[in-house]
Write a structure and sequence with these properties.
- 24% of the residues are buried.
- The chain is 9% helix and 30% strand.
- The protein is extended.
- The strands form three sheets. A seven-stranded antiparallel β-sheet has the order 2-1-7-8-9-6-5. The chain has a seven-stranded antiparallel β-sheet with strand order 10-16-13-14-15-12-11, with no helix packed on it.
- The chain has two domains: 3-141, Pnp Oxidase, Chain A, CATH 2.30.110; 172-249, Elongation Factor Tu (Ef-tu), domain 3.
- The chain is mainly beta.
- The chain contains four helices and 16 strands.
- It holds the Pfam family Phage_phiJL001_Gp84_N.
- This is DUF2163 domain-containing protein.
- Residues 283-305 are annotated as: Disordered.
- Residues 197-279 form the Bacteriophage phiJL001 Gp84 C-terminal domain.
Length: 305
């Protein structure tokens, strides 16, 4: 049944006076795990998703507009081991998850109308419950546009602007955890082939264990007692055990010299390394210096010849 046909079937049902309507929500996380919820007292199923009635999920009034302003609402629910858990929220597994909401005839789920499509924004939790901000599809338009003129590169290593292949040999490692402290400091064996500080500013991505799918930005990369010590800026919000597998990705400090020497990718460098600095912008001519047409200050980045 097409979307228009399903909508018309719902309108015909509502026009009958005696209705059997409910709301259903589908939440799909970025790791591919999906959940179905409904405010009906029985389960509802359509489009291959089972919408559970025991989730305790409800939604506040939906704000929708015909312009480009951001549609928004809130989802409220109880934390449950069977659906949304506090551990998953703290780990960020629901951050940016896609959300769809329908008005459905529970007696005939083919008769339905989509009320909302968007993503989860801020999520808070307290007293065994959670509150999630829902953002409409126009939220994606609420981003800065245009280029920023700055000395360091504005691209992210491996993205469409950088174009560097982060799967290239020598730029990643897949070790197992030899020792871990507070899910923030990791020790590894067998990484001697990588230069010191090779992974600083890179990513640590867990591929097994309770934290599989989670990642963190690397703050420090140093050797300690014959082992490699990797420290993250913030701890992984899940239990990490010795023997868990992960992926370490080389880091980039956004400097032109690093792009050229470490990654041989200067053709795609997105910074402006010769842009004048603050000293040049605040310089001015003085009577004590000869007006030769050369640089105003010795700190100028421009050639003196």
């Amino acid at each position: 049944m097409s979307a228009e046909t399903a909508r018309q079937a719902l309108l015909d049902h509502a026009a009958g006076g005696l209705t059997s309507l409910c709301r259903c929500w589908k939440v799909e996380r970025r790791d591919g795990v999906s959940f179905g919820f409904t405010d009906h007292d029985c389960e509802v199923s359509f489009e291959g998703t089972l919408f559970k009635a025991d989730s305790g999920l409800v939604a506040s009034a939906l704000v929708q507009t015909t312009g480009l302003s951001v549609d928004n609402t809130e989802a409220l629910g109880a934390l449950s081991d069977a659906s949304v858990t506090e551990a998953d929220i703290m780990a960020g597994r629901f951050d940016g998850a896609s959300v769809q909401a329908w008005l459905v005839n529970w007696a005939d789920p083919e008769a339905r109308f989509q009320l909302f499509a968007g993503s989860i924004g801020e999520v808070s939790r307290s007293a065994g419950a959670f509150r999630a901000e829902l953002r409409g599809l126009t939220e994606a338009l609420n981003q800065p546009q245009g280029a920023i003129y700055q000395s360091p590169c504005s691209a992210v290593l491996g993205d469409g602007k950088c174009r560097f292949n982060t799967n290239a040999a020598g730029y990643f490692a897949t070790p197992t955890v030899a020792e871990v402290t507070e899910a923030r400091v990791f020790l590894f064996d067998g990484l001697e082939m990588f230069q010191a500080r090779w992974f600083e500013r890179g990513m640590l991505r867990l591929t097994s264990g309770a934290g599989a799918g989670l990642s963190g930005v690397i703050k420090n990369d140093r050797s300690r007692d014959g082992r490699r010590e990797i420290e993250l800026w913030a701890p992984i919000e899940a239990e990490v055990a010795v023997g868990d597998a992960l992926r370490l990705e080389a880091g980039c400090d956004k400097q032109a010299a690093t792009c050229r020497a470490k990654f041989a990718n200067f053709d795609n460098f997105r910074g402006f390394p010769t842009i004048p600095g603050e000293d040049w912008l605040t310089s001015y001519p003085t009577s004590s210096n000869a007006a030769t047409g050369g640089p105003l200050t010795s700190s100028s980045p421009w050639p003196t010849e």
